[in-house]
Known about the structure:
Blueprint: H1 3-20, E1 26-31, H2 37-52, E2 56-62, H3 72-84, E3 89-98, E4 101-108, H4 121-138
Parallel strand pairs: 1-2
Antiparallel strand pairs: 2-4, 3-4
Amino acid sequence: xxxxxxxYEQSKKARQAKKKQHTVELKSMRYRPKIxxxxxxxxxRHVREFLLxxxxxxxxxxxxxxxxxxxxxxxxxLQRVVEELADISTVGQEPKMEGRRLNMILNPKxxxxxxxPKRSENAEDKxxxxxRQAVQxxxxxxx
Length: 143
């Protein structure tokens, strides 16, 4: 067997494998300890969208100044996020302090991930047939 042909086949297999693999993104959302209700709902809705797309989400609470003395407020915010998203997510990493941040990672539940609708070749063929039929009915292209 030709070595060049062998190398080509190997690279072709590697490209095919790369096409089929799914990479998990790590998105992030920042909260504050004194967050308002509307802001909380808005950010949590975005986290829900990220989880439904299949991404992991790093949720963190930023503390500034004297807020560091009361980290329990940050724990309450993160606990509330977990409760709101319990139906579609699991806690991948428990909340822990890193400097001025309280971090937590949420993983999507496999059954909650929305799959992207794939267009089959048949659907494309049907669309072509419908457009051809419309052209024939209009009389366009006839002499």
